[in-house]
Amino acid sequence: MRHQVAVLQRQVKNPRLSWADRAVLAALARLLPRSHLRQLRLIISPQTLLRWHARLVRRRWTYPRRSPGRPRTARAIRALVLEMARGNPGWGYRRIHGELTGLGYQIAASTVWQILKDAGIDPAPRRVGQSWRAFLEAQAKTILAADLFHVDTVLLRRLHVLFFIEHGIRRVHLAGVTAHPTGEWVTQQARNLLMNLEERADGFKFLIRDRDAKFTAAFDAVLAAAGVRIIKTPVQAPRAIAERWIAGARRECLDRMLITGERHLRLVLGECIDHYNTHRPHRALQQSPPAGRPHPPALGANVRVLRRDRLGGLIREYSQVA
């Protein structure tokens, strides 16, 4: 046996032992005194055997470690809790917990509280106050704004434009164009607007205007009879939405062409406003126009893009054509 071990040692310098081989050799070697162990001709050293035995003992008495605490809440449930909290600012964690229970989710109220706390959302029921953004979005649907601006023709004749704009959906209404704006003319345009809006006029509660003398008491009375409250802006205070549209109309149309007269200006503004209301995207409306439009189908092999030119190419619209 010793000679056979010697032959094996000469032929195999580094034998490969499995875990079971190491365990058996370590257990058997532990039964022998250390003095006898040193006299044996083994394929491994005594120090290696002792190290294997110590590792075997350690594995025998070491159990897999478990993570402390309860298991982590499923990602889908956490996402649903946050969606409910952000979509319903008046709900506390107890209200959200009740809604989840009704949906069949077995989750503790304290877990809902912790999810909201970790996301930086106040879980207490006092989270009932509206944010300024939510308040303004709710109020914007009931607000109209009116304003006048002027355009100089190619013959230096000054024309005045009266328009109204809805704050909620940014829809623009061209009231009229004239070279001689008077209080009576502005009042009549207000009557025409209310007639054109018909039932939609009942949804407006406020009208924002400046202190121009052309907005007379008769103008205010016409709108007050329709249930619209007049709000006058302070002196030199900007009217962001109305003035933004004026700047856009000048930049995209009026400053890039010569206006010959009142009829020409009405035609140009009609094209510009129609493009603004039906096609031009708005960030405040999730890149949709004020009139709204269905989401186009996904681009494919049989879909091509068609360009439509307006005002001789000053305005270009793109749409999908199957």
Task: Give a verbal description of the structure.
The protein has helices at 2-11, 19-30, 34-39, 46-61, 75-87, 93-102, 109-118, 132-140, 183-197, 217-225, 240-252, 262-278; strands spanning 143-152, 158-166, 172-178, 206-209, 229-232, 304-310, 315-321. The chain has 322 residues and is of the alpha/beta class. The protein has three domains: 2-61, no CATH class; 75-129; 138-285, Nucleotidyltransferase, domain 5. Helix 10 links the parallel strand 4 (206-209) and strand 5. Helix 6 (93-102) packs across helix 7. The longest helix is centred in the C-terminal third of the chain and has 17 residues, at 262-278. The termini are far apart. The model has no long low-confidence stretch (mean pLDDT 80).
Summarize the structure.
The strands form 2 sheets. A 5-stranded mixed beta sheet has the order 3-2-1-4-5, sandwiched between helices. A two-stranded antiparallel sheet has the order 6-7. A hairpin with a 4-residue loop joins strand 6 (304-310) and strand 7. Helix content is 43%, strand content 15%.
